[in-house]
From TrEMBL:
Belongs to the class-III pyridoxal-phosphate-dependent aminotransferase family. The keyword Transferase applies. GO terms for molecular function: transaminase activity. InterPro entries: Aminotrans_3, Aminotrans_3_PPA_site, PyrdxlP-dep_Trfase, PyrdxlP-dep_Trfase_major, PyrdxlP-dep_Trfase_small. This is Acetylornithine aminotransferase. Gene3D superfamilies: Aspartate Aminotransferase, domain 1 (3.90.1150.10), Type I PLP-dependent aspartate aminotransferase-like (Major domain) (3.40.640.10). Its cofactor is pyridoxal 5'-phosphate. It comes from Methylobacterium crusticola.
Length: 414
């Protein structure tokens, strides 16, 4: 920041006007001005390989998405109190990607709104108030969801209980055993479970993809106690994990699926899909209206994102290029001490350090070194010791190689 006086002034104005709740990435913050595909460009014209952002899932400023957005903005933008084909088409297209048990899609503007609505539905149809989340989960910004987001040390809300995410090499049953144990603790506290909400990649728990099947067994456990299984697909959805939805590698059919982030490639749109009978039970006594949720422009964007995912076979690419990238990342485990790689599709966590407190500092050094080398990644997990690598899906093989080489060099120096 020091050698860029315009950035210095901008940061100053930002701190004054936007205040202390905002955080910037990197020791040397990035002043970005344009994006294209997997590349971002800063104010000085330097290009950065974006290996971090899952929101622009089809690539920054994808021309088909930009075109759909601008055309629809010039044609009509209104809410769902009028009939229009675009939200119907988008609901139909989303349902076609989901198991046949899912009957309806309701539109929101963010992952948080989708999760908040999921909680209302779960409480409404079960008559219960308790929720189970993973021990370092993040589910959103509302007051209720902040209490269901213990990552970063947020205090738990009333009637919210946690289970540890699967540890490496745990069998698939371990998570379900903990859910049953948790339901027992809830009963002792006089709380009945309304639902189990799990991010299908458990990102803030440290990108814990878990053994295949663990989410199905956990869903069985919550249902046996009368609660609903809610798959938070806000990070894992839209092809990220090498399948359209992160839950599918677990062979589970959840009761509710929530979506956001990549759904609009950067445009604020989210959604909730529910099994037919669950939405019917909720809607028997209540409705839901969201002014901007399902607006015509957002739906045009959502449809363009689905078109690009399909036409560019980005799910297949996430699976195939992701598998090769996974092997190359695993090659680093032998070259560096205390490095462990895990992931699915094009979503990877690289644990650095032996899990002690110094590990978080080492991860920060790696993230900053890579930023200096022009490759953007992040860090997450309970101790901040898990490097988060999650490029837009159209990332090319050579670009994935660049990420591995930059990581190799950064781990060597850190
Ligand atoms: N769920 C998960 C798993 C998330 O990662 C996030 C955002 N980080 C949310 C929900 C909330 O989404 P939003 O910020 O769009 O409200």
């Amino acid at each position: 920041a020091a050698e860029d006086p315009s950035l210095h002034r901008l940061l100053d104005r930002r701190a004054r006007s936007m205040g202390p709740t905002y955080r910037l990435f990197y020791d040397e913050p990035l002043h970005v001005v344009t994006g294209r595909g997997v590349w971002l460009e800063d104010a000085a014209g330097r290009r950065y390989l974006d290996a971090y952002n899952n929101v622009p899932v089809v690539g920054h400023c994808h021309p088909r998405v930009v075109d759909a957005l601008s055309r629809q903005a010039a044609t009509l933008n209104t809410h769902t109190r009028y009939a229009n084909e675009l939200p119907v088409l988008l609901a139909e297209r989303l349902l076609a990607t989901l198991p046949s048990e899912f009957g309806n899609v309701v539109f929101t503007c963010s992952g948080s709104e989708s999760n908040e609505f999921a909680c209302r539905i779960a409480m409404g149809v079960t008559g219960a108030t308790g929720f189970i989340v993973t021990a370092h989960a993040y589910h959103g910004t509302t007051a209720r969801l902040a209490g269901m987001s213990p990552s970063g040390g947020r205090p738990l809300g009333r009637d919210v209980f946690t289970v540890d995410a699967p540890a490496p090499d745990e069998p698939p049953e371990a998570l379900a055993d903990r859910v049953r144990d948790c339901i027992g603790r809830m009963a002792q506290a006089g709380v009945r479970p309304a639902g189990l909400m799990v991010d299908s990649v458990m990102a803030t728990d440290g990108v814990v993809v878990g053994p295949a099947g663990c989410l199905r067994l956990a869903a069985d456990a919550i249902r046996a106690a009368g609660g609903l299984s809610i798959a938070d697909e806000v990070q894992s959805g839209f092809g990220r994990c090498g399948a359209m939805w992160g839950f599918s590698r677990h062979g589970v059919v959840p009761d509710i699926v929530t979506m956001g982030k990549p759904m609009g490639n950067g445009h604020p749109i989210g959604a909730l899909a529910a099994r037919r009978e669950i939405m019917a039970a909720f809607a028997a006594t209540r409705g839901y209206f969201n002014t901007f949720g399902g607006n015509t422009v957002s739906c045009a964007v959502g449809l363009a994102v689905l078109d690009v995912i399909q036409d560019e076979d980005l799910v297949g690419h996430a699976r195939n290029a992701g598998a090769r990238f996974h092997r190359r990342l695993q090659g680093l485990e032998a070259r560096h001490r205390h490095v462990a790689v895990r992931g699915a599709g094009l979503f990877f966590g690289v644990e650095v350090g032996g899990g002690d407190d110094a590990a978080g500092s080492r991860a920060r050094r790696v993230v900053n070194a890579m930023r200096r080398a022009g490759v953007l990644i992040g860090a997450t997990g309970p101790k901040g010791s898990v490097l988060k690598i999650r490029p837009p899906l159209p990332v090319a093989e050579e670009e994935l190689d660049t990420i591995v080489s930059a990581l190799d060099a950064a781990l060597h120096d850190a």
